[in-house]
Amino acid sequence: MKTKIAIIDTMFARGDMGKVCIETMEKNAKKNNWEIEIMRKTVPGVKDIPVALSQLLEQGCQAGIVFGMPGSAKVDKTCSHEASLGIQEVQLMTRKTVLEVFVHEDEGKDDKDLAEVMHNRASKHALNLLWMIFKPEELEKRAGSGERQGRENAEQVML
Amino acid sequence: MKTKIAIIDTMFARGDMGKVCIETMEKNAKKNNWEIEIMRKTVPGVKDIPVALSQLLEQGCQAGIVFGMPGSAKVDKTCSHEASLGIQEVQLMTRKTVLEVFVHEDEGKDDKDLAEVMHNRASKHALNLLWMIFKPEELEKRAGSGERQGRENAEQVML
Amino acid sequence: MKTKIAIIDTMFARGDMGKVCIETMEKNAKKNNWEIEIMRKTVPGVKDIPVALSQLLEQGCQAGIVFGMPGSAKVDKTCSHEASLGIQEVQLMTRKTVLEVFVHEDEGKDDKDLAEVMHNRASKHALNLLWMIFKPEELEKRAGSGERQGRENAEQVML
Amino acid sequence: MKTKIAIIDTMFARGDMGKVCIETMEKNAKKNNWEIEIMRKTVPGVKDIPVALSQLLEQGCQAGIVFGMPGSAKVDKTCSHEASLGIQEVQLMTRKTVLEVFVHEDEGKDDKDLAEVMHNRASKHALNLLWMIFKPEELEKRAGSGERQGRENAEQVML
Amino acid sequence: MKTKIAIIDTMFARGDMGKVCIETMEKNAKKNNWEIEIMRKTVPGVKDIPVALSQLLEQGCQAGIVFGMPGSAKVDKTCSHEASLGIQEVQLMTRKTVLEVFVHEDEGKDDKDLAEVMHNRASKHALNLLWMIFKPEELEKRAGSGERQGRENAEQVML
Fold first, then answer.
1. Min Cα–Cα distance to chain E from D74, Å
2. What are the structural domains, with CATH classification, of chain D?
3. pLDDT surpassing 90 at residue D8
4. pTM of the model as a whole
5. C-alpha span between B68 and B53 (Å, rounded)
């Protein structure tokens, strides 16, 4: 039986991260013989993600990944926080893993950089979710290693 | 059977966004032969929206849209945040989609501009909600496109 | 049968808003032949309001109104926010309308002004709650009109 | 039958407020013939209070009082806020009254003053809780009177 | 029967605190004849901890300990706050004790210091959790004593 994965993205974001995610997932699923089926829904902005996510997870998706781009104004940061709390609440209501992939509009130095951050973060987290479902040992061997999404990894320090 | 839509607005707001919403919805519903029935309730301010919304959704509305105008003082921003968390909670309790349409009193450069933002955001989101209910593909084809409500759209960047 | 209304206030506040509320409610109820019964409880501070409110609402009150005066220190603002979240949670747990009437200690220019804000806000919201229960059309005809409690109303702008 | 009261305190706090509370409660209970039984649990810091509190309340305590000392760094203020939200959530889950007695490490002008604030607040709230359980009219007659814990009372203003 | 303990850590953190925790727990469990079994899961970042934790606690773990390293940017502080709220929510859902061990990336004066804070906090809290499960009197005798994890203890003040 195929593992159903929910993808929610927004009209508000300035790049189609959902598409990058789907491409990454399909390529990796094929390579590893992981059977997946993707269900996607698009909503206006990040605050509309939680309930849409809950609907897909309760329609049989086993896990999810969501994409958003909070704006740079202070009110946008508050919206982002509210959306994140909702996404977390949905996970706890359903006990299902969901990766939140937000790229803040002011993270990019310019439009080109913003596009790179979006692509990097969307594709790395698409793979992370597949690992969490099909190959959790990939995460365990990177425990406390400074792994990042969007930019290069941080250095590990000795304990 | 008609789709019941809940509208909650406030006495506090400085413009009748609920009226703009109803006009937009009725015009578009008629044009597309979408059968809708609107239930409206007015409350004092944004913090009174969540429970009123829960009441209408539990009385049979399938979706909702709410309008508010948080003031410009710091305490008003906190109220707005609290209201947003409550509106989200109601969505997760009922699993029903609700669009939150808030226009902050300090968003407008002057009263004329404030009125335009209110009109633009209220009418665009009224249409968004109809699309989410009757024609979700309209949102999917705008995924990651920089679509905004209240002001002009943002530019899409290449991934 | 009488409509039971819960009132919660605090020892911390610097004015007896509960008393103002009761006087306003009784006067208006008498004038309009609205049958009400008031249940009142006093707690130490605003953070003690939510659970006390839940107790009264679950003992049969159909609606509630709560009074508090958050202090001016930063930690007091946080307490106020926590209390507001709790008051909202109680409304969503019980699906019952509760008006939160907080007057921040630093809202007043001086003690006289603070007293006036308290009196104005407490009495206006006392009437608002009665309208919400017995005459909701009074709110609907003021939708988006800039109605305020505590100070004079704001101006409506044209949409 | 004795009324069971839950006390939770922390190792992190710089003074034994739990002990002050117990002494105040035992003295007042004896004087008024109030039958109480105290159950106490100590946790590392304030964020560990909510779940410990929920455990004691669900083991039969009718009410609770918790003591903590948030540090002065910004991250400590956030922890304090999180703990407060959790303590409130536990009250709403159990419908039981809990007084939160936090003394912020930076409230004291010096160590001596800090100790005095802790002692004052812990003992006054210990008595408040007993009043809430056994003699609620003591709170009602102080409604809106400016009653404070930790420092002297504020002045009441005329409404 | 062995007591199952859940450990969740992240790939994002710059040091393997989970490993330090396991070493501390195994050494102390052996010395005191406490029968424990550790279940560990690694997730991408702190916001992925709550749902993973809920899964392990609902699979039979009696308690948990989680490790994370929030970054130094403002958005990271918000993520940390969201994660903390989720970890608390999981505790209240399951009524099980979980220690949250976060080391903020900007807590260290340099990499060496950061490593020391991580090691100190992880090992002290590993022992705290064992005490909470097997020997709670160790915490009670340190009530209000200024006990800290990560750095040296604070001084107790006289009440």
1. 10
2. 3-136 (3.40.50.960)
3. yes
4. 0.96
5. 13
